[in-house]
Specification:
Elements: H1 8-18, E1 23-26, H2 72-75, H3 81-86, E2 89-92, E3 99-104, H4 107-116, E4 121-124, E5 129-134, E6 140-144, E7 147-150, E8 156-157, E9 167-168, H5 171-176, H6 207-223, H7 228-243, H8 251-263, H9 268-281
Parallel strand pairs: 5-9
Antiparallel strand pairs: 1-2, 2-8, 3-5, 3-7, 4-5, 6-7
Length: about 280
């Protein structure tokens, strides 16, 4: 029986995996494949090293960046075959191979990088360039206009090996991901406005109430028939409105909301933009 010919994306993925680069398929729009039925809403507990703890053993290309693998048996498995048939591109996990990508979206961002960052390996992108450094760090989008950082817990589209000598990750790039503390609003009554990842105790709601709120937001995002951008923003706004000022939200809660949104095709950038816009709307 004649075996089906691997897609161009799968062939590229296998070549990268052979070189030790963890890869995953991207659908049209550069988003990751959605979670399978068993992993929807992170019901499985999540993949190892994700913000939501757990040890999901699902063989499907689930959980966005955490699906990245170098195992050719997994990449060519029947479970992954539908994903490769839908794939529009190949992505890789920079942090999984010890790298950081500074994604420069436009000419202004490239000009800024040339003035402020050490030269390193560069790869042309659709609108700008990827600057690749040796070393890992926290990923963060929109660190300045037109500049994203993709390293740990993130993925970047594979655009080719690039050119130039790869430089060690400089402090100037690490500093871009350091978030400034959220200022406290002065009001007539003492209200603590902490960063959403504060992790403090909620003085007026129970832990069960917060858990129900997060679960309901996940469900609303998961079940939205259309208008996913609006739904994500509304759910972020609702969660922040109830719990954003009391410090009870943790990175795990935020990770669950972001995972639900990314499962529906939202990019990390859109998630962070929606979160920031919701905080701004609430004066946080």
């Amino acid at each position: 029986m004649t075996q089906p010919t691997p897609s161009a994306q799968l062939r590229a993925a296998l070549d990268l995996a052979e070189r030790g680069i963890p890869v995953l398929p991207l659908r049209e729009g550069k988003g990751p494949m959605g979670n399978c039925r068993d992993c929807r809403k992170n019901a499985c507990g999540g993949r190892p090293n994700m913000k939501t703890p757990g040890a999901c053993a699902c063989a499907a290309p689930c959980h966005a960046w955490a699906a990245a693998t170098t195992d050719p048996a997994v990449l060519t498995s029947a479970v992954w075959a539908p994903a490769w048939r839908q794939a529009a591109a190949v992505a890789y996990h920079p942090g999984g191979t010890g790298l950081t990508v500074v994604d420069l979206d436009n000419a202004d961002a490239i000009a800024w990088a040339r003035q402020n960052l050490p030269s390193t390996r560069t790869v042309p992108s659709t609108r700008g360039e990827h600057w690749i450094y040796l070393g890992t760090m926290t990923s963060r989008n929109a660190v300045r206009p037109g500049v994203d950082i993709k390293s740990l817990m993130s993925y970047a589209r594979w655009l080719g090996p690039g050119s130039g000598t790869m430089a060690p990750l400089p402090d100037a790039v690490r500093a871009l991901a350091v978030k400034e503390p959220t200022p406290v609003r002065r009001t007539s009554s003492p209200v603590t406005v902490s960063a959403p990842a504060g992790g403090g105790q909620c003085p007026h709601r129970s832990a069960a109430y917060l858990e129900r709120g997060i679960a309901m937001a996940e469900q609303q995002i998961e079940d939205a028939p259309d208008g996913i951008h609006r739904t994500v923003f509304r759910m972020f706004l609702a969660v922040l409105s109830a719990h954003g000022r009391c410090g009870c939200l943790t990175e795990t809660h935020i990770g669950r909301l972001f995972t639900a949104a990314q499962t529906r095709g939202e990019s990390l950038r859109h998630c962070e933009d929606a979160w920031t816009n919701a905080r701004t709307a609430l004066g946080m």
